[in-house]
Structures are given as structure tokens and as C-alpha cells.
User: Which sequence fits this backbone?
């Protein structure tokens, strides 16, 4: 059996615990016409942490209408990032599907409180 290949530099458990990953519910989604690559602007409710904005390249798999009301998982403590005329405040997590351009959004497999921290 071949040895597995390490794909990235190792991180410590402390690195993981410094990263805030939380559940949020998409309140609004619209086409991001000024983005370099096809994307949506998302407004995501994180409960007591407020509504945060994100730019997400998920247009190959989802329509804006499908996204509203969906629970997602996002990193909430990265610095904001300016993308064209939009400030993206959180990084929505997903799995890229090789060769398709699609990204499958990560989400809890059962109802989870909005704003809950992923452990």
C-alpha cells in the first residue's frame, strides 16, 4: 500500500481553535455582476453575531432562489476582503467538484442553531 501524500503544511490544534467556524442562514442572494468569476453576493444571518456578507463562486450548482433560507457553514473571523465593490466578511465553506466548476456547500445534516460554533 502506498504512503498517503501530505497535501498541506500541518496545523496545530490551537490553529484550529483560533478559527471561528459557525452556522448561518442565507437571507439574501444576488448575482455579483462585477465579480471576476461568476459569483453571488450573500447576506448570511449568524444570529447574535449579526448579518455578514460573503462573495461565493457557487453559481454552477445553485440559483439565488435556492440559496435563500439554506443553512451554511462559514469561517467568521478572517479579515474582510474587498472584492470589486463588495466587502466579503466571511468565507462560506464548500467542496469543489473536480472538472465541473461546481461547489457543494457544507451544511449540518440536521437543524442546527444559527450562529453555533463548529467544534
Assistant:
Amino acid at each position: 500500500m502506498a504512503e498517503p501524500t501530505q497535501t498541506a503544511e500541518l496545523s496545530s490544534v490551537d490553529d484550529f481553535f483560533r478559527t471561528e467556524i459557525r452556522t448561518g442562514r442565507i437571507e439574501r442572494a444576488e448575482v455579483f455582476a462585477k465579480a471576476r468569476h461568476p459569483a453571488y453576493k450573500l447576506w448570511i444571518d449568524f444570529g447574535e453575531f449579526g448579518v455578514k456578507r460573503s462573495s461565493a463562486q457557487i453559481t454552477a450548482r445553485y440559483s439565488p432562489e435556492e440559496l435563500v433560507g439554506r443553512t451554511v457553514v462559514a469561517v467568521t473571523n478572517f479579515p474582510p476582503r474587498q472584492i470589486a465593490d463588495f466587502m466579503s466578511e466571511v468565507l462560506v465553506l464548500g467542496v469543489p467538484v473536480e472538472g465541473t466548476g461546481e461547489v457543494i456547500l457544507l451544511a449540518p445534516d440536521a437543524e442546527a442553531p444559527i450562529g453555533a460554533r463548529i467544534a
